[in-house]
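quick one if you have a minute, typing this from the bus. theres a chain ive been looking at and ive put its sequence and its fold in token form underneath. please have a look and point out which stretches look like helix strand or loop to you. anything you notice is useful, everything is just below.

***
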Amino acid sequence: MQRLWLRITEHLIPMFRRRLSGVDALPQLAVLGLLSGIITGVVILAFRLAIEWPLEYFLPGAGSESFEQLDWITRGLLPLAGALGLGLMLHRLAIHDRKVGIVHVMERLNYHQGYISFRSAVVQFVSGVATVVTGQSAGREGPAVHLGAAFSSLMGQWMRLPNNSIRTLVACGCAAAISASFNTPISGVIFAMEVVMMEYTIAGFTPIILAAVSAAIVTQAVYGSEPAFTVPALTMNSLLEIPWILVIALIIGVSAALFIQLVDSAGRFHHRPVLLRISVAGLLMVPFALLVPETMGIGYDTVNATINGEVGFWLLLGVGIAKLLITSVTIGLGMPSGVIGPTLFMGATLGGAMGLVGAQIMPEQASSVGFYAMLGMGAMMGAVLQAPLAALLALLELTRNSHIILPAMLIITTSTLITSEAFGKKSLFLTILKSQGLSYQNSPVIQALRRVSVGAIMDRSIMRTERHLSVEEARKALTAEPKWLIVEGSNGPTALLPAVDLARFLEDTDKHVAEQDVELPESIDLMDIPANRRDLAPVQYQATLEEALNEFDASNAEALYVQRHVAPMIQRVYGVVLKSDIESYYQYRRS
């Protein structure tokens, strides 16, 4: 047994990591995708139970969303007390530990190759549960995405995988979280690639699909196979409704732009103390909790009632506008709330209200209120997140009705275009990143370089050697026929020397000794002989080609030696990378 374990750790695991360095490691990525989905599914189950169990125990009536049945004193004090508690918790944390949600995941992908800490996951779990349980206007899907991405990233870090694989695992965790939350595996896949990664790759689809499917299976084993909402059979009654659908698309597009603008405006107070900002957010929530208690918590009970036509026009319009205002302001002030759930809530209520208006204008042709509520959900999600394909597939999976595709495509693309082109708004997540002074680089070149690790292109034909060698030692070093000699200095490798230059020097030395009848030199200084030496800088084995290029720019080195920590204070060098190697690889992959 011990021999088998040694074989696994010494041969199979390093081979597994080596395969993952490139872009063609589909079998290995598929295994990782399955593991990511299972782990994320279990984590999301724990997260949902942590929210639902105290609410079912604390709230009156059946279910875990009946905040409306609380007495007015409790409704007013609950969000304020919750905000104060959250503010105190976040105040005691370092600034980098306070960051949570999908925006944080995108930041870690863009600036830290997808490395997310366990501490970050714990903060997200606690704050995500607290925002919903204390009646803030919040969603659980944003925190769920962070948790899925974090635990998938931690799995990759524990296995010491290359950074390009950790990035893929983060995408798997995002897809699995959406799939587990809504029971919508297809939209989970598209969400991860369209919203978080902002790229589509053939190699990325396979592990992400497997992650979404395995997470859905885990949650279905507990909650059943029904989607998040109870949706009756929906269909468009008449083509004469298309002009009204375009009007609703305009209203949703304007509402989405207003929502993004309010989040951005409130976010300008990010330099204020976090305790003050969260407390103000909780204080602002009090009048909404008293007057419009439907805005408290996730609000999926209201969404279900809207879809089934159980809510009147003025209430739909009022709660839709109220949800838009309070959610945007509190999220902008720093409340660690999810945004996907509130987005669906706003879309359903505003769409349902417009559906009731349409029924008054065209009573014989108009479709059901639920039909317009579902269209509003997709339109608002697509416009706020600037993710039309993810929104369309979410609608398709939630309704399980292909008849909704045509009007859904029309309203989602139109509202998304109005928000982005008429009002110049980027997705909410990119807007928040920009307000924090960050950007998200998603050019084709950067994306291609991030998908490959230095281990995939490094030259392994190397030999480490001391600077001063005897002639005999130099000849012995060349018998292994290395391509490169890494010259050691007092603080590690200092220069890269082509082995052929040393061989040429030895030939010239032998010829000189024979012609001049002199003795061989006692030692050879590899930093003194004629050779095309290159300055060296280190790069970690897990690094992507993007990180390698950044290291070239930062160090002004002419070559990088690829190293990995194998023991405390011990680094093993695996190969070398030249900038020309990266350029050649990229050109080869493009051709």
Summary: The CA atoms of residues 157 and 166 lie 7 Å apart. The first helix runs from residue 2 to 20. The chain has three domains: 21-229, 239-436, 449-588. The chain has a mean pLDDT of 87.
